[in-house]
Structure formats: C-alpha cells, structure tokens
Amino acid sequence: MNSKQRKVLAVASGGGHWVQLLRLRPAFADCSVEYLTTQAAYARDVDGKLYAVTDANVWEKFKLLKMFIQVAWVLARVRPDIVITTGAAPGFAAVVCGKWLGAKTIWLDSMANSQTLSNSGARIKPWCDVWLTQWSHLAAVDGPHYQGAIL
C-alpha cells in the first residue's frame, strides 16, 4: 500500500447489496480496499482481502450479536480510513464500529428500497458522515441525501 493511499473497508451483505457494492469499485481505484461480506465465496469477485462474517438480521438476535462482534474484530484489525456500505446488517455494524474507531463512514441505501429506506438505512444517521439514498423522493434536508441513482 502506498503511504498516501486511503484504506477502505467496503461492506455489504449478500445478493443485491454485494452486486451494488461491486459497482462502486471504480471509485476506489486510488485506494487500498478490503471487503467484508457474509459469503466467503465472494472472494472470487475481488482482488483485495475479503472477510466473511455470520449472516444475520434483526429477527436473529444471537446471530446478530455474533455478527456484530465479528465485524468489530475485523474493523479493529483493519483500521480503515473509510467504511463504505450498501447495507444491510453487516454494513450497519461496520459503520457503527468504524465511527467508534475514527473512520469516515458512508451509507448508500440499497437501490431496491424504492418506497422507504431499509431498516438499517433508516437508523444509521447518527453514525454516518455521508448518508445517501438512490431515490430522490426519499431524500430529506437532514438526510439521507440524493446524489443520483448511481447503482
């Protein structure tokens, strides 16, 4: 890693969240990027290091706690300058832990959430430096903000 490169931790759960995160890769061209997701098999999709954590959601409290601890452990080891996520639960945990560790945090709510923000996206505001939606009608003065439908 070049000493001037920013270290980015790019985070997404599986499926569409992961696909959307991969579409952001050109934005990381000048960065050292590591990835965190719920599917170890996704390592084939990236050149950088990939960390896999437990897949969990709000209805699976024990698994959610386990995932949060795993994410916190990765963040403590990686110490990224920037955490960016397209959601869902692992992204929420990464943004919260990243903020605690002094990283800049970016939440880009899933393109699939066209009528309302995602569960995680609606609760992430206190921990985000940049909070975005991809639907103009979901934007608000105090966030999330709309900068275009990029994914």
UniProtKB/TrEMBL annotation:
InterPro entries on file: Oligosacch_biosynth_Alg14
Native source organism of the sequence: Methylomonas methanica (strain DSM 25384 / MC09)
GO biological process terms held by the UniProt record: dolichol-linked oligosaccharide biosynthetic process
Protein known as: Oligosaccharide biosynthesis protein Alg14 like protein
